[in-house]
């Protein structure tokens, strides 16, 4: 019936596009047990995508690092937070592509019509109270490219490979997302779904024609 389908749609919106993002009706926040549930789902939701991406990276046996807030050299430690770069979700060394991928994971809301895709465009491009995803990523790329010698020494130390060289490597910023978005097909920086991780970092990804 129409009534039951409306209820199903409302429930789906809550558990797919509201609660995992820490959103619920204000009056529900007064219920301690429900608020605790929402907070738990929010934390699980944030971790889910990163875990899936990491599991895919592990199968390739490439050198990578997760949740990077600083780079370490023999002389000093460089805080990415102090440089106003923020945390990097993944750094991945890809010998096949001769790239160091700077990857951030973005858990996007499901978009079921073209009009709402504009919200994804805004998140990636429009600077407001917070810097857009692209602005933050470009700052990371610029700093790491300028300081590739620091990144190289950092890798040499954490992977215990003193001869590791990034001399011929490019620094490329990419995003891994949980669900496709129209914006990913004309984005300034490449965006891939989490199912594409392995092909992207091993140089086997082929764009659809």
Please sum up the structure shown.
This protein is α/β, with parallel strands linked by helices and 209 residues long. It has six helices and seven strands, in the order H-H-E-E-E-E-E-H-H-H-E-E-H.
What does it look like?
By secondary structure, this protein is α/β, with parallel strands linked by helices. It is built from six helices and seven strands.
Through-space gap between termini: 41 Å
- Kindly name the structural category: alpha/beta
The level of helicity is: 40-55%
Order of helices and strands: HHEEEEEHHHEEH
Q: Show unreliable segments.
A: none
Number of strands: 7
Order of strands across the main sheet: 1-4-5-6-7
Enumerate how many helices there are, as a single number.
6
Radius of gyration: 20 Å
Strand content: 15-25%
Dominant shape:
globular
Largest sheet: 5 strands, mixed
Q: How would you state the average pLDDT, rounded? A: 87
Keyword list:
209 residues; alpha/beta; five-stranded mixed β-sheet; two-stranded antiparallel sheet; 40% helix
Break the fold down into its secondary structure elements and pairings.
Elements: H1 2-17, H2 32-60, E1 64-68, E2 70-72, E3 77-79, E4 88-94, E5 99-106, H3 117-125, H4 133-146, H5 148-158, E6 170-177, E7 190-193, H6 197-201
Parallel strand pairs: 5-6, 6-7
Antiparallel strand pairs: 1-4, 2-3, 4-5
